[in-house]
Specification:
Elements (H helix, E strand, L loop, with lengths): L3 E6 L8 E7 L11 E3 L11 H11 L5 E10 L6 H15 L6 E6 L2 H10 L6 E3 L6 H9 L3 E4 L1 H5 L3 H7 L5 E3 L8 H12 L3 H15 L2
Helix pairs in contact: 1-2, 7-8
Amino acid sequence: MSQFINLHTHRFSNDSEVIEVVNQYPWEFDALIPNYSIGIHPWYIDEKRLESDLACITEKLQLAPCLALGECGLDKRIDIPMALQISVFKKQLDIVKQTKKPIVLHCVAAFDEMIAIKKEMKLENPMIIHGFSKNEQVARLLLNNGFYLSFGKYLLRNPEMEKVVKFASENQILLETDTIEESIYEVYEKAAAVKGISLAEMKATVFDNFSRIFN
């Protein structure tokens, strides 16, 4: 019996119908959360804390409840210098490369850099752009370079995203709530309607993708 998958959320709901990958940060880690990802978000890079944060990520990625690295990545719309962001990002990628675990990515206006780093570091870990909000052209570029796309907030808020979800290959998509109030069930209903398939088919598709990506 497949469950619903919430690829990225900041709130643990303890719903037995849903496997949730709850976002955790090293500096406020909660050991009571059963499934999580852990990483340094580019917004919250703190060089004074960097060594201990990376040590925490290294330790947690060895554990079964830690399903992925992330949320980590690059953001060109913040004040933190891109060189520092790339350095911290690559340090996290070096850690996760020792595992087969996927990477949940935050990427704002830095898709070319993201693709270049994937190639340069010869990353084989699955890489998922969470909260995808761009157009079909960007989606095509990412999908062709082996990335997965996770949809949530923007699918519910922006009618333009329907074209992207319709276009995206069914075996490269996941669904999430991130920080929105709506439930994962509402995201699934919307995605199923856009894809023109039943809710049960959408559930099975995402569950199969999750099982394959998360091994």
